[in-house]
Amino acid sequence: MTMKLFLPLVILAGALFAGAASADVRIKDIASFEGVRENQLVGYGLVVGLNGTGDRLRNSPFTEKSIEGMLERLGVGNLSDDQMKTENTAAVMVTAMLPPFARRGSTIDVVVSSLGDAGSLRGGTLIVTPLSGADGEIYAVAQGPIAVAGFAAQGLNASVTEGVPTVARIENGATVENEIDFELASLKSVRLALRVPDFTTATRVEDAINQALGGRWARALDPTTIEVEFAEKADLPDLMAAIEVLEVRPDSVAKVVIDARSGTIVIGADVRIAQVAVSQGGLTVIVREDISVSQPKPISIGNTVVVPKTTVEVREKEAKFTVLEGDVSLQRLVDGLNAIGVGATETISILQAIKAAGALHAYLEII
């Protein structure tokens, strides 16, 4: 299959995507302030009001125990196992992300996921569910009607399912009841953590902050961390806001990423190769089976038999050499691969062979 090049640097025929050169980006897009982050919350609860699509109590004993415990807390007790036959309740796990500086009374979104064998959560209502953090403390309480994106329908001999009806969301479904202590005013310095560690990017962030604030405010501690010290009585929110909008040009390691399952190749803008000559070719073997029938002549004794006929054909693809110049840019590398006229699978083999020959000056990652 011949690969064709379409701007901007996206080869659709071979599923080859080439990234553009890096540009200036804001610090807030490549780094985050240490301590200013979200926290995961989780809880276990019950969804009620389902239209016969809840857990089957025989297969989900934890749902039955949860219903019994809930009814006992509400003053309803002394229920035997044979009396518990509801199909309108489902046990669920409730998860949420607690944003930084969340205050009491604010609301957050929650995700509700079925824990048992419920067929669908559509139409259900989550009852009061405490949400805990990793330290075991309760930080929010969730409750409310849930919204399901998928649906499921079933008849006697057929069924149809669209999306995932056992996962739902509740917008603003949890109320924050406890705050995480974090005071900016008590800090004498803050640290920026790069999402992709790199010495060059860290020093560029350091230089950008020092140039903008005037002086030696920032220093890179390692490839990931940049520490910024402040003077006494400094307005930290204003200074942090001024820092995160500064623009720098991030650097990265030259890399070629290959997804062999889908045939996707991503080539970084800094990838370079030494001068090599590449030839790609191969054999194609075609085996065809034809079936013919042999019948006896009229007025004769004999049997009709099936006679298989096998045809084997070998086709050899003409191999052509293409020279890829040394220290080429990304554009010329892509043009050189296109000149060979190969598909995504052959391109993956070529890149691996160039790497084995020591001519690919980049990190080759196969996922």
Question: Which helices and strands, and how do they pair?
Answer:
Blueprint: E1 10-11, E2 16-18, E3 25-26, H1 27-30, E4 31-33, E5 39-48, H2 61-73, E6 90-98, E7 107-114, E8 125-132, E9 138-145, E10 147-148, E11 151-154, E12 159-162, E13 167-176, E14 189-194, H3 199-213, E15 218-220, E16 225-229, H4 236-244, E17 247-248, E18 255-259, E19 264-267, E20 272-273, E21 276-280, E22 283-294, E23 305-316, E24 320-324, H5 330-340, H6 344-356, E25 360-361, E26 363-366
Parallel strand pairs: 2-19, 18-26
Antiparallel strand pairs: 1-2, 3-17, 4-14, 5-6, 5-8, 6-7, 7-13, 8-9, 9-13, 10-13, 11-12, 14-16, 15-16, 18-19, 20-25, 21-24, 22-23
For this entry, give a set of tags.
367 residues; alpha+beta; Aspartate Aminotransferase, domain 1; 6-stranded antiparallel barrel; 5-stranded mixed sheet; flat; cell projection; flagellum; bacterial flagellum; signal; Flag_FlgI
Task: Give a structural overview.
This protein is 18% helix and 38% strand. It has helices at 27-30, 61-73, 199-213, 236-244, 330-340, 344-356, and strands at residues 10-11, 16-18, 25-26, 31-33, 39-48, 90-98, 107-114, 125-132, 138-145, 147-148, 151-154, 159-162, 167-176, 189-194, 218-220, 225-229, 247-248, 255-259, 264-267, 272-273, 276-280, 283-294, 305-316, 320-324, 360-361, 363-366. It has a six-stranded antiparallel beta barrel with strand order 5-6-7-13-9-8. The chain has a five-stranded mixed beta sheet with strand order 1-2-19-18-26, with helices on one face. Strand 1 and strand 2 form a beta hairpin. The protein is flat.
